[in-house]
User: Fold this.
Amino acid sequence: MPGLIIDPVFFFQIDDEDDDKDDVTVSKFTSHYFNITSASSSSPKSTTSSSSTATASATASPSATGSNQTSKSASGSDRYGVAVGVGVGVACLILGLAAGVFWYLRSRKNVNKPGHSMPVGQRSNGAEGGYPLQEQQVHNYYKDKSAIYQPIPSGELSSETGQHELMGPEPRELPSHTTWSRR
Amino acid sequence: MKNSFLSYLYTVFPLVLFLAHAASAATQPSTPNYFINPPVSGVNSEYDADPVILEGSPLDLKWNTSFSTFSLWLWQQNNGTGFCLLDQASSATYPGALNWTVSLEGQFDLSKQNGRCCSIPTD
Assistant:
């Protein structure tokens, strides 16, 4: 009956002797299969010996079957994993830098655009509305920002003073000449 | 603007570093025990990428292991025959390398095919 024959293949195996106290070797690892060709042979015996059909039908001996291949494969899938890992790393780096540049440019654009800062409290102190803001006004806005976002007083009496504790700036009194009119 | 850019750096840059580290870690062997030469083991019973070495030529065996005491065996696949090159060796004595002259060690026979025959359908 015609058939394909696998040439002799060899592999190295290292056993952990510290883990061999019960005559059961638990930890071991093997090398890649390799072929040995005789120096006296005129033609290499096993360079193209194996085919997918032959390897699919090959059954390992107990010694070979029992060898745990704990190491990663360096052929095929390992090279693919290296390529994927390097690709993902480079892609993440490029995306991160691109996002940073985009963020930076967008922030600069927003600063230069009129109306970026809200003139909070501008009308209540009598200043003229409109833009652009004066530098001092922007500074006061950020300076007074903490006071603006204070919680609304709940109206509870203070246990010590017996008075309402108002948080934030004192309410301003409107000038006597202020008149309200609907547009 | 400056603060927002700094907050971006503090948020995104560690993430980029983590992903880069994870990608580089994926390329490293997952265990400290592996052969370097001959290469690390491939798929079991897959012989397509087998290197061919010449009998009588020198071969620099290299490996990396965390075992303090180990044995190095040469096995012939499907034959159940093994030869012990190093027995109860210490990592201090053999720190991951051995110069070995390729030999059948009197144990192996190249003319003895160890593979199984598989039938090919003949019409």
About this structure: The first strand of chain A starts at residue 3 and ends at 4.
